Amino acid sequence: MPDTTPTPPPPREPVGPPSPETHVIDYRAAEQLLEARDPRGAVRLLDSVIAAHPENTAARLLRARAFFAAAQLRPAQLEFELVLEREPDNAFAHFALARTHQRSGRHEQARRHFRLAAALDPQPEYLAAARFEG
Q1: Pfam families recorded for this chain (predicted)?
Q2: Same domain membership, residue 98 and residue 64
């Protein structure tokens, strides 16, 4: 007797390039992956977002954080520096770049960025890292 079990249809291929909505979904999913301690998964999602929107500083900052969390210090440094080229007054980017330099053993560069972060935003954490009194 012939098998009459229906075969499932093949998976649908995406039609056309990803939409802006897809990039927003990928960005939000990358935030959740980073929070769930999967920085490499976050980087994978953000690569396509940044390829489509290279000027998106928020996506670059999130990818820099993911690189840092994955101990990929050189890519993290490059992303933080790119963010700071576009937003030189971004205190968090200075602070995160300082942490990256610190982990890489470049203490003078770290101190400079800790101080810039504290000067831009005198949060207790930034002040302590810069060794300013808070």
Answers
A1: TPR_19, TPR_2
A2: no
